[in-house]
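Now for a concrete sample entry.
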Amino acid sequence: MSRNNTLTPLPGACAACAVRPFALFRVIPQARVGEIARIRSGVRLARTGEAIRDGVFTLYAGWAFSWTATPDGRRQILDFHLPGDLVERIEDGAEVEALTDASFCVLSRERLCEFMGRDPGLALSYAEGLTRDRARMRERLTSLGRRDAVGRVAHLLLELHARLLRRGGGDGNGGPVPLKQAHLADALGLSVEHANRALATLRKDGLASLQKGRLDILDRQGLEAIAGWSGPAQTDSLAPRTAAQ
């Protein structure tokens, strides 16, 4: 960790983890938090744009994203990862890249599987995460296949806002969203020019603004209408849940 000349906070003791209330291990009682430490094999810092090669990790601070590429080199972003997310990287599968400076806890896949085998509550927490991921991917496919450029961008902004709210990272009017037009384009099957025009339309119509890493929702009802949004249940809507302390 000699590179830690950054403002990005590094994970500390599991007992004082700031992201545990909305992460995989939220169901583990405080009295058993020490067991989590035996699953963690290390903590790491990744700089903006750096590839993350670790197989399984929980993002602690910052944002990351998973992506793949077509044979001719065009990038497709598959998902964005926020603090608290469990990220699993499969060999010969998608790449993972730090979108901002990010820190995370590296987990042992074998010890995590063994823990879930002994703890049904943790296995259920893992399954709930998979359900949320599947719902998010279903909506992303709907966007790619059936929504126009403005609707795609509007829906993704609402999705990210719902995920931020779940983590206490924003308020009803918006929050920090460090995406550039290229990220929106590569996630939504658009050119950068189309993504930029869609953002300009949302801003001109007084619906939403994404500038300098900040999302401002100016007219939520109007934004939801243009996105075909039917509520947070499509994304990350599970309320933070912790086990009895």
Observations:
- The radius of gyration is 18 Å.
- The longest helix spans residues 120-146.
